[in-house]
Amino acid sequence: MSKKIVLAYSGGLDTSVAIRWLMDRGYDVVCYMGDVGQGQDTENSRKRALDIGASKCEVGDLREKFIKDYAFQTLKTGALYQNKYNLATALSRPIIASAMIAFAKQEKAVAVAHGCTGKGNDQVRFEVTFALMAPELKIIAPVREWELKTRSAEVDYAKKHKIPIEQTKKKLYSIDRNLWGISVEGGSLEDPWCEPAVDTYVSINTPEKAPEKPEYVKITFDKGIPKALNGKEYGAVELVEKLNKIGLKHGVGRVDMVEDRLVGIKSREIYEAPASEILYASHFALEELVLDRDVRGFKQFIAVRYSELIYNGLWFTPLRQALDTFVDKTQENVNGEVKVKLYKGKAMVCGRRSPNSRYKMQLATYGEGDVFDQSLAKGFIDLWALPFKK
Q1: Does one domain contain both 145 and 195?
Q2: Options 93, 125, 177, 352, the catalytic residue
Q3: Which residue in the list 174, 188, 203, 357 is annotated as catalytic?
Q4: Are residues 59 and 194 in the same domain?
Q5: Residue 122 to residue 115: CA distance in whole angstroms
Q6: Is residue 383, in this structure, part of any structural domain at all?
Q7: CATH number of the domain encompassing residue 134
Q8: CATH number at residue 312
Q9: Of 150, 169, 188, which marks where a domain is finished?
Q10: 66 in the same domain as 210
Q11: Residues 120 and 229 both lie in one domain
């Protein structure tokens, strides 16, 4: 009797080849697809897995939980890895891995597998979650272990075994997408001096093709969570979908970066995240209005650590949960509306208002109605400088 293994299946090159590779090693392969808003035809991918030889392929709808409990929680924190990357791919791994564990127990599987390479971060994100939630399950990483050393070799393997794939030797980009963002790597992008080709644009317009006329959007927040777009309330998934559609039209959300991977190497990545860029800009602007200086400053420090925890696969850890408690407290007064101008690849905040605003016109103004007593400044400066005088 063959051993049952649950494979995290994406429908792409690596995991499609992995089905056949695992079968050749005596495994009964059961696939699990976590739908985090990839936008692909999951039914077609499910059938592809079965055609290759998987005995079953389960598709789990994780979109709502992914956006509300993972993406929006990270948004509230303000976490951006290296101050640029919104962690879209990193956030999707722990929710998929935890769903896989539940499915593996249901199927009475003896092992779990993923399609991550030995160079990347995703192997850590999957395997740490597996180890924490189901240490009894064996973990297999085909791409890390097999004899296929290049993507070209994988393409040849797929052709030899009649495995249906979309990649070719001419276009070898590795693309991962979900509702919160898209990552693109490989191919010509491996040269950090090389300007990304037009075919690396997956969803958004190039700035050159963006409309000549700007568009304004208004985002409403309740306790740090985006709730409405242009005055109309939406559920989490629908709001992100609508903002993605608007943002991609204007070329908003494109990031080209060289990032520090957990395994110690640098990699060149392209990210596309229109909704996320608009929401991060809006949320940050609203916090400027309602949080006091000390909380805002300390929270920015927390955001860096939080981004590292997510990037490094440590979502299900006590520290991340403890930081959430702090962040949630800071968000109690992050209520209000932010106006954003979208134009030629940029999301520019141009207005913000809140019932909890700490901004006082009568203190800030240099015009009529000024109540700030400037005569107090001299004594304040003398005392401020006192510890540093010789």
Answers
A1: no
A2: 93
A3: 174
A4: no
A5: 9
A6: no
A7: 3.40.50.620
A8: 3.90.1260.10
A9: 169
A10: no
A11: no
Q: Is 353 a catalytic residue?
A: no
> In whole angstroms, what is the distance from residue 158 CA to residue 155 CA?
5
Q: Are residues 164 and 204 in the same domain?
A: no
Q: How far is CA 170 from CA 115, 133, 199, in A?
A: 21, 40, 11
Instruction: Give me the number of domains the chain comprises.
Output: 2
Question: Which token pair is 231?
Answer: 């005055």
Comparing 173 with 184, the larger pLDDT belongs to 184
The residue out of 140, 169, 198 marking a domain boundary is 169
Of 28, 35, 122, 176, catalytic = 122
In this model, does residue 70 exceed pLDDT 90? yes
The conformation of residue 69, written as its DSSP 8-state character, comes to I
Annotated catalytic, 176? no
SS3 256: strand
Residue 288: how many other CB atoms lie within 10 Å: 13
Residues 155 and 207 reside in one and the same domain? no
- Which secondary structure element, helix H or strand E, spans residue 43, and what is its range? helix 42-52
pLDDT value of position 9: 95
Q: Give me the domain span that covers residue 117.
A: 3-76+91-169
Is residue 184 within 8 A of residue 174, CB to CB? The reply is: yes
Q: Which residues contact 303 (CB under 8 A, 6 or more apart)?
A: 77, 78, 79, 80
Structural domain contains residue 382: no
**Could you read off the pLDDT of 311-361 as tens digits, one per residue?**
999 999 999 999 999 999 999 999 999 999 999 999 999 999 999 999 999
Higher pLDDT, 297 or 43: 297
Q: What is the pLDDT of residue 102?
A: 97
The Cα 339–Cα 334 span in angstroms is 15
The C-alpha atoms of residue 275 and residue 278 are separated, in whole angstroms, by 5
Task: Give the model confidence (pLDDT) of 80-92 as tens digits.
Answer: 999 999 999 999 9
The pTM of the whole model exceeds 0.90: yes
Shared domain check, 195 and 325: yes
Residue pair 256/228 in contact by the 8 Å Cβ criterion: no
In the block, residue with structure tokens 């309330």: 233
14 is catalytic: yes
Whether residue 28 lies in the annotated active site: no
Please check whether residues 63 and 135 belong to one and the same domain: yes
